[in-house]
Amino acid sequence: MLNQIEAFQPLNGASRERYVEDLIFRFEANDTTSTEKKRAILMILCGPYAYVMIRSLLTCRPLNEVTFKEIASKIKEHLNPEMNLSENCKFAKTLDDMLRDRFFGGIGDEAIQGRLPAEPNLSFDLAPKIAIAAETGHKYTEKIRAPKNEFALIQQQARNNNSAHRTKQTMDLVPAMNGGGCYRCNDDYHASRCKFINEECHFCEKIGHVERACFTKLREENNTSRKTSRT
């Protein structure tokens, strides 16, 4: 029964009270009590006019945080003056222009609001369709761009990991400065097999070698020795 609800069409003489009243009766008939489900059904079946209007009226809050009651109240505040007059008065062709301008003024997205005036022969029926298409296109573009950014980040991480791996491989092949085989401890085996790989040096306090194989200590001792010989 809920899928038989028609989209809200103000130009057909519909009023907010009758539309929401019919919706509430259908909720009762289908035992729909969840306010989240009521909100979802309204947003799916209300049609492009009401959907874009609701989004423009609630720009400061995500729709999933607004209750069905709040949405209905906002629609009433926004539409009732224009809709009640349009039901009993003969505006002829000016009604479309008045409602189009009212809709245009209620749009919260400046990009969409700036685009609509550039459309030739913009009517009240066409404006919501253009606004929805623009918003949908914007969301689709964001979804496309997000994976690209994630892929670029993954690539950068891979390059960093490869660089670190190459550096480690190079260091593992470098012998200690005093002629030993392992630059971590000066013992006679490859550095990749050294048990001091996670050891903290007591001299420079860096991880990966012991004091007897410390490059910093050896360099300072060499500098001290050269200074002593000069004096």
How would you briefly describe this protein structure?
It comes from Trichinella pseudospiralis. This is CCHC-type domain-containing protein. Helices cover 60% and strands 0% of the residues.
Structural class: mainly alpha
Rg computed from alpha carbons, rounded to a whole number of angstroms: 36 Å
Number of helices, where a helix is a run of at least 4 consecutive DSSP H or I residues: 8
* Alpha carbon gap, first and last residue: 102 Å
Shape: elongated
Task: Give the total of domains.
Answer: 2
For the sheet with most strands, the description reads: none
How much of the sequence lies in strands comes to under 5%
Kindly state the percentage of residues in helix: 55-70%
User: What value does the average pLDDT take?
Assistant: 72
SSE string, helices as H and strands as E: HHHHHHHH
Count the E strands: 0
Parts with pLDDT < 50 across at least 5 consecutive residues: 173-179
Protein name: CCHC-type domain-containing protein
Overview of this protein structure:
It is a single chain. The chain is mainly alpha-helical and 231 residues long. It has 2 domains: 2-139, no CATH class; 176-231, no CATH class. It contains 8 helices and no strands. The radius of gyration is 36 Å and the shape is elongated. The model is unreliable at 173-179 (pLDDT under 50). This is CCHC-type domain-containing protein.
